[in-house]
Amino acid sequence: MMFFEPSKGHGLPHDPFKAIVSPRPIGWISTLSKDGTANLAPYSFFNAISSNPHLVFFSSEGAKDSATHAEETGEFVVNLASHDLAEQLNASSVDAPRGVSEFAFAGLTEAPSTLVAPPRVAECHAALECKVTEVRRPLGLDGAWAGVIVVTGEVVGVHISDAVLKDGMFDAVAAGNLARLGYRDYSAVTEVFQMTRPQWKGD
After folding, report:
1. Engineered SS bond to 180: which of 2, 3, 44, 161, CB 3.0-4.6 Å?
2. How far is CA 2 from CA 11, 80, 145, 155, in A?
3. What confidence tens digit (pLDDT) does each residue in 95-141 have?
4. DSSP state string for 104-129
């Protein structure tokens, strides 16, 4: 089995870290700047971290617009990344100048949110309206800032398309939830299976 210490290099064509830690849900984050310009960008370092209250986070490598706007305004929206919107999601990752709306660039429609100011993506099957609870700048072992900004928010509103609700449950296959793998690879949910957590009955 191969072993390497990341600080000393991996000797492979590409760093395998993101491929190992996968699949990762994609946080398709919409925000508003202080002057009211909409911004939209995908973040592969994203997940839910609590169910009571509903907390999610996204991590920005550097002070990019999404993290900056969320910290300044205290609000953001997580739009569901799905297979049918993969091309638009990729388009929204463009390194456009500040002030340019990725909604327009990617051919997406801004829809009003209910409890927060940033718009959501009208074409998405689900969206989570969030209010910022914490912004952190994690450190490495050397005590220096790792160069990332982690924004945590509480979900205060949820939008779900009727098309992906089956018997009152969210259907990830119908929605085609999109995930980020390593390198340039993505994956979509096409099948699911169920398991029941075992109950301990003693020796």
Report:
1. 44
2. 10, 36, 29, 41
3. 888 778 899 999 999 999 999 999 999 999 999 999 999 999 999 99
4. HHTT--EE--SSSSS-EETT-SEEEE
User: Identity (one letter) of the amino acid at 176?
Assistant: G
Give 163's contacts (C-beta < 8 A, 6+ positions apart): 125, 174
User: In degrees rounded to 5, what are phi and psi of residue 131?
Assistant: -120, 135
CA distance 109 to 124: 10
Six-digit token string for 144: 């220096």
CA distance 19 to 46: 15
Return the DSSP state at 174.
H
Spatial distance between the Cα atoms of 121 and 129, rounded to a whole number of angstroms: 11
